[in-house]
Every structure is written in C-alpha cells, then in structure tokens.
Amino acid sequence: MIPINLPKIGEEEVEAVVKVLRSGLLTHGLGAGPMVTQFEQKFAKFAGAKHAIAVNTGTAALHSAVVGTGVKQGDEVILPSFTFVATAEAVVMAGGKPFFADIDPETYNISPEGIEKAITEKTKAIMPVDLYGLPADMQPIREIADKHDLQVIEDAAQAHGATYKGKAAGTLADAACWSLYASKNMTAGEGGVITTDNDDMAETMRSIRTHGEKEKYKSVMLGYNYRMSEIQAAISCVQLEKLPTFLAKRRENAKRLTEILEKTDKLQLPNEPEGCTSSWYLYTVRLKDSTEEKRNRIVDGLRKKGIGAEVYYVNPVHLMPYYSKTFGKHRLPETEKATKQVFSLPIHPGVTEEQIDYIGKTVLHVLG
Ligand SMILES: Cc1ncc(COP(=O)(O)O)c(C=O)c1O
After folding, report:
1. What pLDDT does 346 receive?
2. If DSSP codes are grouped into helix, strand and coil, which group holds residue 99?
3. How high is the mean pLDDT of the chain?
4. What is the number of the ligand 1 atom nearest to the C-alpha of 184?
5. Are 123 and 99 in contact (CB under 8 A)?
6. Alpha-carbon gap, residue 1 to 148, rounded angstroms
7. Is the separation of the CB atoms in 120 and 73 below 8 Å?
8. Ligand 1 pocket, residue 80 CB under 6 Å
9. Which of 72, 106, 145, 185 could pair with 150 in a Cys bridge, judged by C-beta atoms 3.0 to 4.6 Å apart?
10. What Cα–Cα distance (Å) separates residue 90 from each residue in 37, 85, 198?
11. Strand locations in the chain, DSSP E?
C-alpha cells in the first residue's frame, strides 16, 4: 500500500536524538531548554514571526493560542466544520462556543461571507484553517476581524511552507498554530508551535505551556504541561532544515499527478488561487456531482490496488455526536456536500515518479 503520508526520517534525526540522550538534558522545567530555544528561533524565522512557542502537540498549540488571545467562558469563535476536530476542541477547552461557518467549494477553506453571517455580539475570534495545506483567504478575514475587533487564530497545522500573497502562512493572524504530528510536512512524532508578533500573547502562551509559570512554583495563571521535550526539538530542528526539499518533492508530485488527472472531467482537481502557494500536505480531489456511496466505491477500488486513498473528513465536526448534541444544528450545505465527494491521494516525498504515474493511471481506470 502506498500510504497517504509517511514521515521521512534519516540518520541526521537519529544522530540528533542520540546527542540529546547522551547530554542527559531530556527536557527543561520551563519548557525552554537549549534545543527548544534553538528550534523556536529557527521556526520564528521560517514563519516570518517575532515569536515561536514550541509545545507538545498541535492541539496544545491551538488551546494555548485560543486562551492566549483572550477567549473566555461563553465567547463565540467562528471556525470551519470541515477540519480536524482539534480546531473546535481548542475552543471548547477554553470555555468558548464554536460557531461553524460554511466553506468555499473551490478551496474548501472557510468563506469570508460565511464568517460575516456568523458574527454576533458574543464573537471574540475567528479561526480559519489552511486545509490540505492551502492558506485560507486571510486578507478579507483580517479586514472582517479588524472591523469587528476580533482576534484571528490561524490553524496552520497542515501549512508548513505555504504562502499567502508572498508571505508565509500565518503572518496575517494574531497567532498561528502548527502541528508536528507524524503525518505532517515536518514532524517531531508529536509536537506543535505557535507563532505570533504580539509580545504579551507570546509571554502568556509561554506560561500556559508550563503550568502558568513564569518562574518555577509561581503560577500566575491556569496552565498545563504542554512542554516540548529536548528530544522532540532536536528532531524538529533537523526536519525544518529538510523541509524545503520535502516541499519541493510534494510540489513536483502534485504537478505530475495533475498532468495525468487532467485527462478526466470527472474530478475537480486541487488548485492554487492567484497569490497563494500550497504546502501540498494533501492532494485532494472532488468526484463531481457524486454521492457518498459512489465516492466510497472509488476509494475502496483504489485501496484494493494498493493506493492509500483517504477521505478528509468523512464527518464534519458539526455532525459529530458530541458537537451536534452540545452546540446544536448548523446549516452548512457546501461543507456537507464536500464531505461526501472528496478524497485524497498520496503525494508525500517518499512517493516516486513511477508511483505517481501508477496512482494517476489507476485513478483514471477506476473512474472508468
Ligand atoms: C487542521 C488540523 N488542526 C489541528 C491538528 C492537531 O494537531 P496535533 O495532532 O499535533 O495535535 C491537526 C493534525 O492532527 C490538523 O490537521
């Protein structure tokens, strides 16, 4: 099976981990050991941000950012339902109420018009997600946020290396959150980072990650253990150096696959809107005018032929049992339609040209 994603780990990562193990300093009491600090400096530069705060998961990054930007009990946060559940979870963990807005059917990202319609007097923040690695339409989102005095927390978990109007994804947000989970464009196995230009928010998020402390045993606010270990940071430093090579291979694979799949008119292929580049975390196609059953048959057919096609996401968050029961009904026709029609194909850096040709030809064959 050609898996949908696979971490690319080499001897450099192994050596970096061994070095940390030999040093004896596996983690740091305030989460700010030498490897973590080095990684934060490198990641801040990469993301074009003043601060990077390393934590132990992307979910921890999101939760810290939601709390750090000031979301409190009862505040509403507007976000897409077409995302991984962690985006909504972070809002609920902070005591906020997720308010789901619909997506743009071309990009699958939250639609600025949908956001405008969802604003109430309780709205405190907007959480766009850079789905599949394509940045959300941040300029209009920033304008809406400024007009209504709202915070913007960008879920850039899938977007390492993506750009929006010539700048790194995340730069138009008040805080951007990145995941270093094993499937992501760069990984530490588990890990996360928050980037921000705001000094006060950065300080708050640094406290949140280590029990609300600025100094040991002097908690100034409610915090958690969200510290990244020195081992995770050592892997992350190496992966960040390799990221440009990984991204180039993903882009090359995406281009080659598009050249093959353009031969059918049954699929809506992924696109980079003017001024945007994708990180190509996932190559997601839509089976036009399809039913869920028909799409599932195609995915099963591909899996039988050794292609690890997957559906992200079979269930939008607002239809998950807990979220529908707790936060009620939302009318999201574009989200519900996309959920039934999309599927993703492997293009990660471990996929060879020959495998891309095989994936492309097999998709055309299975589509009939
Ligand atoms: C869009 C999105 N948000 C949040 C997360 C959560 O990140 P993590 O798994 O590192 O907690 C992920 C990845 O898993 C994701 O894809």
Report:
1. 98
2. strand
3. 97
4. 13
5. yes
6. 49
7. no
8. no
9. 145
10. 25, 9, 20
11. 51-55, 76-80, 97-101, 123-126, 151-155, 163-164, 167-168, 175-179, 192-196, 267-268, 276-277, 283-287, 342-345
Q: Ligand 1: which of 92, 103, 158 to mutate, judged by most atoms within 8 Å of the beta carbon? A: 158
- Looking from the CA of 218 toward its CB, the CA atoms found within 13 Å total 3
CA of 101 from ligand 1 middle (Å) equals 19
How far is the centre of ligand 1, averaged over its atoms, from the C-alpha of 188 (Å)?
Answer: 13
83 Cβ below 6 A of ligand 1: yes
Closest to 180 measured CA to CA, from 172, 191, 171 = 191
pLDDT value for 249: 98
Q: Which residue shows structure tokens 């209009």?
A: 140
Alpha carbon distances (Å) from 152 to 62, 70, 78, 141: 12, 11, 10, 8
Q: Which pLDDT does position 181 carry in this prediction?
A: 98
Distance from residue 178's CA to the centre of ligand 1 (Å): 8
Closest atom of ligand 1 to 60 CA is 11
- How high is the pLDDT of residue 86? 98
Q: Name the helix (H) or strand (E) containing 257.
A: helix 230-261
- Cβ of 194 closer than 6 Å to ligand 1, yes or no, is no
**What's this model's pTM, rounded to 2 decimal places?**
0.98
pLDDT tens by residue, 59-84: 999 999 999 999 999 999 999 999 99
58 CB within 6 A, ligand 1:
yes
The residue whose CA is least distant from atom 12 of ligand 1 is: 157
| Ligand 1 atom closest to 129 (CA) | 1
185 ligand 1 Cβ < 6 A: no
Residue type, 304: K
Say yes or no: CB of residue 312 within 6 Å of ligand 1. Answer: no
The pLDDT value recorded for residue 231 is: 98
Q: Which residue has the tokens 């897409």?
A: 80
Torsion 34-169-209-88 (CA) sign: negative
